[in-house]
Amino acid sequence: MSFGPPPSPFTQSRLTASEGRKKRTSLLVGVLLALVAALCSAGWLLWGPGTDGTASANRPTSAPRAPDAIRETVETPPKTPEGGTAAEHAVELKEGETVPAPGLWATDKIVAKGIADVVKGIRIKDSEEAWRIDFPGLICAVTRHVSVDGRTAVAFSGERLEKGGRTEEAALAAPCDRVAVFDIDTGRKLWDKKLPGPSGSAMSVNVTMTRGAVVAATGQASVAYDMTSGERLWADTATSDCTDTGFAGGRGLIALVECGDSADPVFRVEKIAPRTGKSLWTYEVARGIKGVHLASSSPPVIAVAAGDVRSTTLITLSDLGRQRGTIRLEGDRYEHGCDETFSGRVEMCTGVVVGRRQLFMATKPRDFSPEASRGQTPNEVVAFDLATGNTVRKFDARPGRPMFPLRMSGGKVIAYREAASSPSAAVSLDPESGKETILLLFGQADVPEMTALEPPDVVYERGRIFLSATGVARAEDDGPRLPLMRGFESSG
């Protein structure tokens, strides 16, 4: 009987509960058998039958979702794809000022945007500021995850800003020592907690969410809180040669653990029970790997850097932590987003979209001109089989309009198609049929380019697409107000 491909030269896998791992201290022990049964039941309701193992490929699931589960909206095409402005927001800066702007989240009522030490809620339709949350210090870590009932989390500095302290340099220097959860629709901060252990920097703190829990790693400690009450579920502050570097949330929770000398680290990936912190299995990464990022918690997918700090391979794992397939990243061929410079984030790989059976990445955009390209497509969105790592389908972008996957929508993929001189688009890609369906066409004025030095945040939610800068700088010839975010929706 076969259990998948043999271990690659990069890794070898073994099942273990917590062998070789520093002990996590559980502060809340659930009834494990009931929890496992509930999760198994919820997993069936979530995925059900569909083209990618999901509840439906073209309509929202009718199965009820827990309010504190992580949102996975299934989109439907609008009445007309012609788009108009849904919301927009600009920021005022002094000449020469540069500020970070992390975080972009949307519901059917509000689009929320972080900038420096503030999160603002912008009302969809009239672009008026509906609410704002002022933090004492700079926002230093965010998660893209949103709960079914519209909650998300940020980490921030509890140290008050000094005058002129809203810069990127200040963000790196300030301690990143607190985490908060807020309601996107109302702007209500639900709870705010001091992270345990020594204060980490913005380079080392990671925050994520999974069903019912908010989980953070500081570089010195790791901790989980109940999403609703803010009660601490477990924490690991023990001094050890091994450290929880970060976590990937969403449908599940996996941890990246780093051991030994930072010049020659040894990594392992563990599946974690969110309510107890218990390790359910361990996947050991071979020695010599320079870095690991977590692309997906369920199905588990990791990116490893062999011989350099740049990711060279994606490795897919089974639900039991065994290796399934490998995908070679082939130098600069793919726009995977796993190698953000000068960042300590672990849950990234923003260009990798993982479904139940397949994984999607875009190839790097090519320069396009009718004379030189001779019909060459500007790039492709490539689908890979998770079980084997083999390519199973390609979606060609159109001339001059490179395309990038954003997220799953049932069994289909929502992608952003960028165009400089004609309308950009949000499209739906069907891996079963190979069909591309236009969801939204929208203008390009003041929209940050996906291929810029710092690509924008892009969120597609409830038939709307939002694009936002992740940092803003005012040059000498700029006016005081700089565009920060724009959103588009169907005009039908």
Description:
The protein has three helices and 38 strands. It starts with 10 loop residues before the first strand and ends with a strand. Residues 1-62 have low confidence and may be disordered.
Summarize this structure as a short list of keywords or feature phrases.
492 residues, mainly beta, 3 helices, globular, disordered N terminus, PQQ_rpt_dom, WD40/YVTN_repeat-like_dom_sf, membrane, PQQ-binding-like beta-propeller repeat protein
Give the structure's gist in a few sentences.
The chain is mainly β.
- Please tell me what the overall shape is: globular
Please give the count of helices.
3
What's the pLDDT, averaged over the residues? 83
Task: Output the strand order for the largest sheet.
Answer: 1-22-21-20-19
Low-pLDDT residue intervals, each spanning 5 or more residues = 1-62
Roughly how much helix do the residues carry, as a percent range? under 10%
Instruction: Please summarize the sheet with the most strands.
Output: 5 strands, antiparallel
Transmembrane segments: 27-47
Domain Pyrrolo-quinoline quinone repeat: 126-394
Keywords: Membrane, Transmembrane, Transmembrane helix
Pfam families: PQQ_2 (PF13360)
